[in-house]
Amino acid sequence: MRYIKNILLSIREEEKKLDLNSQNVIESTRKVVSFLLSKLERLRDYIMENGFEQPNQEIEFFKKIKPEIQGKLIFYNKVFKIESSCPSGMWDVHKKYFSDELQKIENIYRENTCNCPFYRYYRSGRIDRDEELFIRGQINIDNGLNSHIFESDHRFSTYFDYKVARIIGDELFYDYLIFRINSGLFDMTKAENIQQLVWTESKNALIELIYAIHTNGSILNGNVSIRKITAIMQSIFNIELGDIHHAFHRMKMRAGSRTAYLDQLKKSLEEHMDRDFE
């Protein structure tokens, strides 16, 4: 699987070059969409030629690896389309434009996504049906599938890998819209000042902090969504956290302390207080 890991590494390196804050976001996202398409095509050729040695490898690929890439492809393509269609005008015009798009996503989530059994299965971190959902050739038409499944390449899709990709892509796009709506709070001509702030702990550490801030109601007495807090943190620290809900679920399964970073913060603060007291 080294070939697959190298492709993932090349994608992450390419993303480091991408600056969604810049004035060149349209051209940048167009290029990254083309780049991701080429990587997916290479992965398809590799899988067709080599297959998988074990079922768990196939499950990991179609549940995590391919959806991560395809989800980013969906996300960057949406950013390209919405930015290239953005009307000219003052900031209030832009804000309404992005707010209307955000409202569409929220409506779709309320009316369809959150009531979908598969969404609940994926969000809960379950694995009991993975062999049915993420191994090729297991499609059951009695479940009432969307018609696009009949147009997909069944040698490189399980149908549900695309549904995971849509979840990832839509959530990244949701966060991006929140950032664009709130970008009036920042001076975008000085984006380089924001980029100088680099988060040097792990991504899981920042996710712990975000959840702590949200659950404690530390911002606006809790009247702010975790998505908005995440989008702001990602913007400030120039970092992509990906699927924070899935990461948080994995934290709940940790051996030992489930709040390792928060424990570390408490310990560091107490040690600092002790030194000051001395």
UniProtKB/TrEMBL annotation:
- Name the chain's protein: RteC domain-containing protein
**Pfam families noted in UniProt:** RteC
- Top-level taxon of origin: Bacteria
Instruction: Identify the species of origin.
Output: Pseudopedobacter beijingensis
